[in-house]
Amino acid sequence: GMTKAMASCTISMLSTWTDEEKELEVHEQLKQLTADIIAQTAFGSSYREGKEVFTAQEELILMAIASFGDISVPGLQ
C-alpha cells in the first residue's frame, strides 16, 4: 500500500546520495521526495513524470501569497 510506496520513493532518493563529503540541498531533496510520494500514492506516477503539474502548483502558490498584499481590509493599514 502507501507505506510500501513511501519506502520505495525514500530508498530511491537515498540511493542517489553517496558517501562523499559534499553539501546536499536537503530542503529541495525532501520537497522532491514529498512530491514523488504524493504522485506515486495518489496518481501512480513519479514526481519526474508529473513535474509540470508540481511546478505549476508551486507557481500558483507563490502568486497567491504575493496577492495577499493586494487585499484591502478596512481598519488595517
Topology:
Layout: H1 2-15, H2 26-43, H3 51-67
Helix pairs in contact: 1-2
Short summary of the structure?
The protein has 77 residues and is mostly helical. It is built from three helices and no strands. The longest helix is centred in the middle third of the chain and has 18 residues, at 26-43.
Structure description:
64% of the residues lie in helices and 0% in strands. It has helices at residues 2-15, 26-43, 51-67. α1 (2-15) packs antiparallel against α2 (26-43). The mean pLDDT is 82.
Task: Write out key terms for the chains shown.
Cyt_P450_sf; iron; monooxygenase activity; 77 residues; single chain; 3 helices
* Amount of helix: 55-70%
Indicate the structural class. mainly alpha
- Which shape, going by the Cα principal axes? elongated
Radius of gyration: 18 Å
Total number of helices: 3
Give the amount of beta strand, in percent. Answer: under 5%
Unreliable residue stretches: none
Give helix and strand order, one letter per element, not per position: HHH
Taken together, the total number of domains comes to 1
- Alpha-carbon distance between the two ends: 50 Å
Average pLDDT, rounded to a whole number, is 82
Q: Please tally the β strands and state the result.
A: 0
Largest sheet: none
